[in-house]
Amino acid sequence: MALKITEDCVACGVCQPECPVDAISEGDPIYSIDPSKCVECEGYYDSPKCAEVCPTDACVPA
Ligand code: SF4
Ligand code: SF4
After folding, report:
1. Hey, is 35 helix, strand or coil?
2. CA-CA distance, 60 to 9, in Å (whole number)?
C-alpha cells in the first residue's frame, strides 16, 4: 500500500523532508511518491505524515 500525490499539489515542498523513508521526490510540475518505497508511515507515525502536513490535501491513498 502507498499514498499518491494528486493534481492538487502546489509543489510547496513541505512533505518531502517529512517522509521517513525518502519516498517523495520533486517532479515537474508536481511532487510524486514512489509506491515501492512508501510504507504509509507504518512504524514511524500514527498516520501518513505527508497527508498530515500537505496544505492542499494532495496526498491520498493510491
Ligand atoms: S505516507 Fe509516509 S512513507 Fe508514504 S510517502 Fe507519505 S510520508 Fe512517506
Ligand atoms: S505538501 Fe502537498 S502541496 Fe506541498 S509538495 Fe507535498 S503534496 Fe505537494
Report:
1. coil
2. 11
- Spell out the CATH class of 1-62: alpha beta
Check if 49 has its Cβ closer than 6 Å to any atom of ligand 1: yes
Is 25 within 8 Å of 32 (Cβ atoms)?
yes
All three cell numbers of 44, joined, read 514511524
Q: What is the pLDDT of residues 34-52, one digit of tens each?
A: 999 999 999 999 999 999 9
Contact 41, 48 (CB under 8 A): yes
pTM of this structure = 0.96
All structural domains of the chain with their residue ranges: 1-62
CA of 16 to the centre of ligand 2 (A): 8
